[in-house]
Amino acid sequence: MQLPDLQTSYSLSGEQIAHYRENGHTIVRGVAAKEEIVPYREVIRQCVLADAKPMEPLEKRSTYGKAFIQVANLWERSEAARKFAFARRFAKIAADLMGVDGVRMYHDQALFKEPGGGHTPWHQDQVLWPIDTGKTITMWMPIVDIPAEMGSMTFASGSHKLGYAVDLLISDESHRTLKELIAAKGFPAVTYGAMAAGDATFHDGWTMHNAPANPTGDAREVMTVIYVADGARVAEEIRTRSQALDLAGCIPGAGPGDLIQSPLNPLLYSRSSPGQ
């Protein structure tokens, strides 16, 4: 099957870039056209069906387990998924929003919230990542249309400016603690509501965010790609077991202070390299 190449550029406005840098999140509509998304949806769904771990019925799972079915690094499993995750179009948007010359893959991840799936608690992504820079960004792209009742994410605007807030994984405790912190700091909670397949939100690694439950009869199918600025290094201090596991899994062979450039962190876009 001939898949769209997703290599053409998408031009951001100055307002979109400024909004992202001030608030730690933004939405970019129509990053991929519907006809581009349709063939990739089938590729991504097949990867999730093949690699998702068996799970108990929703009612027997923890809050985290109810939030979504999660499969990481699809690009290693499928050449077709690799073409999506390595898309120059997506990577250039990430670099433009962060204001960096190039970006590398940190990892990709499919997140499917099942019909009746639970809420995703408030959390910060970068708590898990052993990275020495604030220049990280996640693209969150639905591969199906998402009506407002199905729910896209909610962001605490400006919360990225706090940096590392608390050492908490996604849990009831992170939800309670960060909800209190967001209220205390007066960060506005912003959601972009309904999204079409191929729209995307981008958020900073430190931006606090959550997502509502899915009360509909359809799955909320989302593909994410996490980028890190080219030239970033592994943090000098690995704070938690989760960070140690992420270091081994996402930056294999690297240690504190090393450049993030393992075989799992290819350069996806560079202003100085015509081929990127």
TrEMBL record:
One of its GO terms (molecular function) is iron ion binding. It comes from the Bacteria. InterPro entries: Phytyl_CoA_dOase-like (IPR008775). The keyword Metal-binding does not apply. Keywords: Dioxygenase, Oxidoreductase. This is Phytanoyl-CoA dioxygenase family protein.
